[in-house]
Amino acid sequence: QVQLQESGPGLVKPSQTLSLTCSVSSGSITTSHYYWTWIRQPPGKGLEYMGGIGYDGSTYYTPSIQSHTSISRDTSKNQFSLQLNSVTPEDTAVYYCARLSGLSYGFDYWGKGTLVTVSS
């Protein structure tokens, strides 16, 4: 069973960069037909899809945050990462990494999520 685990700081100051890493086990991030995504949920709000990176290294982002978001991967470590620049308190959320299946067109595995608070 594929497992995903988010890691990174729980507190980031406004205007700084939020950096998170998702470590994947029992499954390769280069396996065809799978996409590795970031999703967040601000307090009291719904889930927001942010973007992801495909098995081939292609990246895609939600247009509203594309200008200050970067997703990358390290295939040697089987990890993918999120960088969100110039954060504001509105970026406070639980951040999840999840696998999107290009076969079933659904998110089939999720990390447990990590709370990131943006505050001075």
Describe the 3D structure.
This protein has 120 residues and is an all-beta fold. The chain has no helices and eleven strands.
Measure the end-to-end span. Answer: 39 Å
**Integer-rounded radius of gyration:** 14 Å
Low-pLDDT stretches are none
Number of helical elements = 0
- Determine the fraction of residues in helical runs and give it as a percent range: under 10%
Biggest β-sheet description: 7 strands, mixed
DSSP strand tally: 11
Question: What's the helix and strand layout?
Answer:
Elements: E1 3-7, E2 11-12, E3 18-25, E4 34-41, E5 48-54, E6 59-61, E7 69-74, E8 79-84, E9 93-101, E10 106-110, E11 114-118
Parallel strand pairs: 2-11
Antiparallel strand pairs: 1-3, 3-8, 4-5, 4-9, 5-6, 7-8, 9-10, 9-11
Which key phrases capture this entry?
4-stranded antiparallel beta sheet; 120 residues; mainly beta; single chain
Short note summarizing the structure:
This protein has 120 residues and is mostly beta strands. It contains no helices and 11 strands.
